What we know:
single chain, 7-stranded parallel beta sheet, 17% strand, binds UDP-4-deoxy-4-formamido-beta-L-arabinopyranose
Amino acid sequence: MTWxxxxxxxxxxxHVVRAMTEAGEKAVVYDDLSTGIAERVPDGVxxxxxxxxxxxxVARALADHSVTGVVHLAAKxxxxxxxxxxxxxxxxxxxxxxxxxxxxTAAGVPSFVFSSSAAVYGMPDVxxxxxxxxxxxxxxxxxxxxxxxxxxxxxxxASGLSTASLRYFNVAGxxxxxxxxxxxxxxxxxxxxxxxxxxxxxVFGDDYATPDGTCVRDYxxxxxxxxxxxxxxxxxxxxxxxxxxxxxxxxxxVSVREMIDRINSLTGHDHPPTVTPRRPGDPARVVASADxxxxxxxxxxxxxxxxxxxxxxxxxxxxxPGAARD
Length: 326
Ligand code: WQD
């Protein structure tokens, strides 16, 4: 199989490319390099620079490389930005997907893996979120991911395309320092940044109805997430006509305070956090039931929070050498 991986020069996409090629699949990266980094694409993997909104360019890439499956990660992913720029998010994430699917179905490509998000659930009022938990996204970003799932599923039903939508929970870590996330938009890098500045990490609210009052999330190592894509790709190949929707998490809740404590101790820092007001829109607890992915994909996460923090820190120190502690 040859997989076209859109967004393959991004943080998660580059890990998917690595996992796919290590599993013996051929990969081609399709990325507009708006946030992706060409150096993340390994030698021997072709890079097509283009937007998913450019249907002709996508069609040419599918034909030129005899593509037999697509993993679609190219998208905008900042929740806060999506509130200010909803038109941009719908265009990039929903219209981009529609144009891509048009090319995919016209070319007769049989398999499609879609990068979705736990953001589709919004503020779930359950201990463990299953795929049957109602989807009530709280941001335009989450809406575009839910609309994307609908579009993917409807296209599969109409055309016979086999599909899998993977709902990522909170992704962290890196396979190697060069592949680490360079953005500072999530808890782990935001805490790294504060520690590097010699400032206190921030806890956005400690009055939630959780054991220590801080928000609880399900953190998943990006290498485990990438392996889930390989498993999904194989499952679609094995069962044409599939329409999978799967949580990709570990099923284990970790609080913001616990994460900051672990980050301090694993990076050799000792900077107690300060509590700031709640960040608007944050749900108290979002933890996956990972059972369906285990059954459907025979996949389970292998790495823990310590692995995520230490591997992410190695990537951070590479970019911010002054941050290292002896
Ligand atoms: C985690 C927790 C913060 C920084 C978002 C999207 C989701 C996915 C991942 C997808 C929250 C708290 C953070 C800090 C803090 N995105 N926090 N101090 O909001 O769970 O999920 O990113 O592509 O769809 O919604 O992730 O890492 O921003 O925050 O207290 O300095 O850490 O309030 O409770 P979130 P996050």
